[in-house]
Amino acid sequence: MINFIEQLLPKNIANLTAYSSAKSEKITGSTWLNANESPFSQQISITLDDLNRYPEPQPEAVINAYAQYSNLNNNQVLMTRGADEGIELLIRTFCIPQQDSIALFLPTYGMYKVTAESHNVALNALTQAELQTGSIASLIKEIGTSKLVFICNPNNPTGAMVSVDRIREISVQVGSKTLIVVDEAYIEFCPEQSALSLLEQCNNIVILRTLSKAFGLAGLRTGFMLSRPEILAPVRKVIAPYPVSTVVARIAENALTPSSITTMQQQVTDLNLFKQQLIKECKQSSAIKSVLTGEGNFVTVQLNSVSVLDIAKEMGLIMRPFTLFGSNAWLRISIGNQQELQQVSIWLDAINQQ
User: Fold this and answer.
1) Which has more pLDDT, 107 or 141?
2) How many CB atoms lie within 10 A of CB 95?
3) How many other β-carbons are positioned within 10 Å of the β-carbon of residue 9?
4) DSSP-derived 3-state class of residue 260
5) Cα–Cα separations (whole angstroms), residue 161 to 45, 72, 108, 129, 222
6) Residue 29 binned pLDDT confidence (cut-offs 50, 70, 90)
7) E strands of 202-326, at which residues?
8) β-pair partners for 288
């Protein structure tokens, strides 16, 4: 049977290393700060009496609400199953397998790489340092022109930001043969740095958004692709006929009411304050070598020794280890509520006393 399956598989899928999400590992614990989820559970009540009917392909009420929230026209908004589907749709729509490539800036979100490889699209891997300065167009040209340039902003897992001016500069550098995809999954934590204004100024910008982070709806799997109508038009050809379930649409509509948005923004204010306190504690810890103080609802630190994670596991405290910059001693800590972050404080106290 194994040989039979191997014969069926395309080589790129056979060689593919799957993305390892925070929830894919079978880990037990009591305090979960490994997936950049919101600690605030959203209490949303909906009534459903029409599940015998197919949903709207693009639910008008949700599109209207998100367009208003982002100050765009309705035809500039496409609803997707999380921002991950947006990544997949863009690669599937604009890239020719075994011919085209995408550019990304390492270290960054792993699904850009996995999605490209699963569609037999090559990678032009640049660095976060190169993203901040120099001519991206020249760098890409040296290693093969890319159809899509993915910029995670704020970047996961480093929290680094690229200024709107820099994104505009890159948009001009690469020209009309390349799309700049700005993944703003964490932008609610620094909304003043959104690239939304560039949709009017540049003709090659796409923005990805999600309700998974600040909106506290990771379990809903809801995202949005924002761009010019002419860019979204071919994507609308490729997207599944009924991508958004009626249940998801009703909950998303509720989450995008003015009162719900106000609640989300207050929660973001609280989480940003909690984050600053965590950064302060991490900088004072003798067990932590360095702290990346970027944006987003997480803090990424470099440990002096990975052995201190054993203490966290014994406490039931689950955080996300990373290999970054050639070292496996990096740890990303999601910003939880005060009770959850108190567990981090207890852990830091314990390892400081070692």
Assistant:
1) 107
2) 21
3) 11
4) helix
5) 36, 23, 12, 11, 23
6) confident
7) 205-210, 223-226, 288-292, 298-303, 317-324
8) 303
Per-residue tokens: 330: 């990096």
Whole-number Å distance between alpha carbons of 226 and 236: 12
194 and 57 in contact (C-beta within 8 Å)?
Answer: no
Closest CA to 248 of 223, 283, 285, 213: 223
Q: What is the pLDDT of residues 35-68, one digit of tens each?
A: 999 999 887 778 888 899 999 999 999 999 999 9
Alpha-carbon span 101 to 272, nearest angstrom: 36
**In the structure encoding, which two tokens stand for residue 203, read together?**
């003709």
Number of Cβ atoms within 10 Å of the Cβ of 270: 14
SS3 per-residue string spanning 76-135: HEEEECHHHHHHHHHHHHHCCCCCCEEEEEECCCCHHHHHHHHCCCEEEEEEHHHHHCCC
Side-chain-facing half-sphere of 339: CA atoms under 13 Å: 5
d(CA 348, CA 286): 9
| Cα three-residue angle 164-170-173, rounded to 5 degrees | 145
Of the candidates 187, 262, 255, 183, the residue with the CA atom closest to the CA atom of residue 215: 255
Rg (CA), the chain: 21
> Which of 137, 195, 129, 136 is closest to 165 using CA atoms?
195
E strands within the chain?
A: 31-33, 77-80, 101-106, 122-127, 148-152, 179-183, 205-210, 223-226, 288-292, 298-303, 317-324, 327-334
Quick count: other Cβ atoms within 10 Å of Cβ 83? 26
DSSP state of 333: E
Q: pLDDT tens digits, residue range 199-250?
A: 999 999 999 999 999 999 999 999 999 999 999 999 999 999 999 999 999 9
Instruction: Give the separation between CA 244 and CA 81, rounded to whole angstroms.
Output: 7
Helix, strand or coil for residue 218?
A: helix
**Structure-token pair, residue 348:** 């830091």
Q: Which amino acid is at 173?
A: Q
Tokens matching residue 110: 């792993």
The total number of residues written for the chain in this structure: 354
